[in-house]
Amino acid sequence: MTAAKTSHDMLIDFITGQSVPNVGVEAIRQELERYLVNQKGYAKSDIGVAVDIIVDISGDLYRSQIDLVVTAAGQRFMVIKCAAGSLESRQREVLSAARILTPSQIPFAVVSDGKTAVIYDTVSGKKIAEGLNAIPTHSVALEKLKLFQPFDFPEKRMEQEKIIFRSYDSMNVNVARKN
Fold first, then answer.
1. Across residues 17-40, what is the average pLDDT?
2. Residue 72 contacts by C-beta under 8 Å, 6 or more apart in sequence?
């Protein structure tokens, strides 16, 4: 017996212009993309969509994507996890992503359902604000980056942070991933 092929409605991604399946949190991502451009002043070119992340855990590679990665003046500023349901339950996943995506931690980690958001300081891991309005504008991002002192996540904690990311990320369902 062969499995029936599932067809999904398709959307045109606001940032990339590519056709994407409307599964999981794709509608939320589309809302956030528009919000970041139309309300927060980011250019489409400032927003990375489904940014690849490859995590090496003791020689085993785990591949995934981060929903949105926002830059300002060419520097990564904010990682955004799109989620339905309890946003604060995604704190560890989004913080881990912001800590391990690049050698230098990305300053802010955000979880949003398209209606509200929770913003975290990546270095301290503390919640610093709530609500869509609290997501920094492009001009605020530029100012914050002037003050941000980038530093690498401590090597002794990096392996643990990778495992945390993989553990939470692997539980995501209805996610269309690039391979």
1. 94
2. 42, 46, 138, 141, 142, 145
What gap in Å lies between CA 8 and CA 101, rounded to an integer?
Answer: 30
Instruction: Enumerate the H helices of 6-46 as residue ranges.
Output: 26-38
Please check whether residue 32 is in contact with residue 114, taking contact to mean a CB–CB distance below 8 angstroms: yes
pLDDT tier, 40 (very low <50, low <70, confident <90, very high otherwise): very high
What is the spatial distance between Cα 103 and Cα 105, in angstroms, rounded to a whole number? 6
pLDDT tens figures, 119-152: 999 999 999 999 999 999 999 999 999 988 877 7
Q: Which residues pair with 151 in a beta bridge?
A: none
Per residue in 59-110, pLDDT (tens digit) is: 999 999 999 999 999 999 999 999 988 888 888 999 999 999 998 899 999 9
For residue 155, count CB atoms less than 10 angstroms from its CB and return exposed for 0-12, middle for 13-18, buried for 19 or more.
exposed
Q: Which of 36, 43, 58, 163 is nearest to 108 (CA)?
A: 36
d(Cα 120, Cα 78) in Å, to the nearest integer? Answer: 10
64/46 Cα distance (integer angstroms): 20
Backbone angles phi, psi at 83, to 5 degrees: -150, 150
Domains of the chain, with CATH numbers?
10-169 (3.90.1570.30)
Is 176's pLDDT higher than 70?
A: no
